[in-house]
Amino acid sequence: MPRLLIVHHTPSPYCQAMFEAVLSGATDPQIEGVEVVRRPALSVSPTDMLAADGYLLGSPANLGYVSGALKHAFDVCYYPILDATRGRPFGLYLHGNEGTEGAERAVDTITTGLGWVKAADYVVVSAKPGKAELEACWELGATVAAQLMGA
User: Fold this and answer.
1) 10 Å Cβ neighbour count for 56?
2) pLDDT in tens, 86-123
3) CB-based contacts of 131: which residues, under 8 Å, 6+ apart?
4) CA-based diameter of the chain, in Å?
5) Which is it for strands 65-66 and 54-62: parallel, antiparallel or unpaired?
6) 3-class SS string, the chain
7) Which of 81, 61, 56, 45 has the alpha carbon at shortest distance from 11?
8) Residue ranges of the alpha helices (H) in 38-67?
9) Where in the chain are the domains?
10) In 3D, which of 15, 113, 6 has the Cα closest to residue 49?
11) Start and end of every NADPH-dependent FMN reductase-like domain (predicted)?
12) How large is the average pLDDT for residues 18-35?
């Protein structure tokens, strides 16, 4: 069964709401045969990454960059997974009060190095996520999970 790994850092109520919406989309009953696993960014391991067939990444944008937790996840996992995860799909959701461009650029750089494939447009939210933003998070989760169906 294909596995979707959600690697997240959810230090705020806004990040938590986005995470829950992504998870809800990824676990929609219409998406069959995909196991969804969630790991906090500070506890994800190379084994978790290697066992997954696709990824959803979630982070606040702190001072214009991804959270230290998500950066730590990549620092720990990058070289052990470098050649084994090429071509796998991923999605990203970010919450930032201002200036998320650096966070987006960081994820682009890291995932390009890993050879991952962007499966959907990033969901980037400033301030409190409203209905439209949470629906976009749901769609992100569902889109990445659906790409793994039948894999």
Assistant:
1) 30
2) 999 999 999 998 789 999 999 999 999 999 999 999 99
3) none
4) 40
5) antiparallel
6) CCEEEEEECCCCHHHHHHHHHHHHHHCCCCCCCCEEEEEECCCCCHHHHHHCCEEEEEEEEECCEECHHHHHHHHHHHHHHCCCCCCCEEEEEEECCCCCHHHHHHHHHHHHHHCCEECCCCEEECCCCCHHHHHHHHHHHHHHHHHHCCC
7) 61
8) 46-51
9) 3-148
10) 6
11) 48-126
12) 97
Residue with tokens 């979707």: 4
- Looking at residue 150, the DSSP 8-state letter turns out to be T
Please give the structure tokens belonging to residue 1.
């069964």
pLDDT value of position 98: 78
Q: What is the pTM of this model?
A: 0.96
Give me the CATH topology for the region 3-148.
Rossmann fold (3.40.50)
What average pLDDT does this structure show over 5-27?
A: 97
Residues 6+ positions from 16 with CB-CB distance below 8 Å: 10
pLDDT of 151 reads: 59
Query: In sequence order, what are the beta bridge partners of 81?
Result: none
Among the ranges 60-64, 140-144, 146-150, which has the highest mean pLDDT value? 140-144
- Asked whether residue 49 carries a pLDDT value surpassing 80, the answer given is yes
> How does DSSP classify residue 130?
-
